[in-house]
Specification:
Helix content is 56%, strand content 5%. The protein is mainly alpha-helical and 73 residues long. It has a domain of 50 residues. A two-stranded parallel ribbon has the order 1-2.
Length: 73
């Protein structure tokens, strides 16, 4: 089974076809089957692990990802 870190690495490597410096900007997670607390905990865990925002756009919005993209230019 491929883990999320492997998936991120593969996608960034593939993105090098069109960009010489692709960067992970965040995660949009479907937490429909999670309780509110589970959803927040999982998003926080991903954010801590990868150093980028993680959110469920429907539940929590995308402000943190948008802010990071704006910061990066």
């Amino acid at each position: 089974m491929v883990g999320l870190a492997d998936c991120v690495e593969a996608n960034l490597r593939a993105a090098m076809v069109t960009s010489d410096n692709p960067q992970l900007a965040g995660f949009a997670i479907n937490t429909f089957n999670f309780s509110e607390a589970e959803a927040r905990d999982y998003c926080a865990q991903l954010s801590d692990t990868f150093g980028v925002p993680a959110t469920d756009p429907v539940r929590f919005g995308i402000e943190a990802i948008a802010a990071l993209l704006k910061e990066r230019g």
